[in-house]
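User: I'm new to structure prediction. If I give you an amino acid sequence, what do you actually give back? Let's try with this one:
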Amino acid sequence: MKDGDDWVINGGKIFISGADKADYGIVFARTDSSKGREGITCFLVDADAPGFHVRRVVHTLRSTSYATELQFDNLRVSAANVLGEVNRGFGIANDRLSRQRIPYAAGCIGVAVKAQEMAISYANQRRPSETSWLPARRSSG
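Assistant: Good question. You get back a string of structure tokens that encode the predicted 3D arrangement of the chain. For your 141 residues, that looks like this:
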């Protein structure tokens, strides 16, 4: 929402990489809800600004990567901190996310492949006990 020369941002974001250690962040916010994805603006935001809150760290399966959850409560951002043009931030977001998603997905595939290898190795060495958790098979007769 525009307020004088500032934008006021309210809302939340989740799965944001490294926000708890950042001095500044790039925030994409809806500035014109009637325009769909063409109503998103990109802002450069000071992480120490009043209204910028890291709510929690979100741990994921990847041990080298984690995310955060953010909350914006009347976060005031100067119009001078708009990156690009107002309502034209979707293109910036799409470019940034496209570059990051492929390497991230490749890392997830690597974790999945290793997990499968470990499961197969364990299954090959495991010997079922007399008291197996599988139900006994009944004979038909």
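You can read the tokens as a compact description of the fold. Here is one thing that stands out. The first helix runs from residue 89 to 125.
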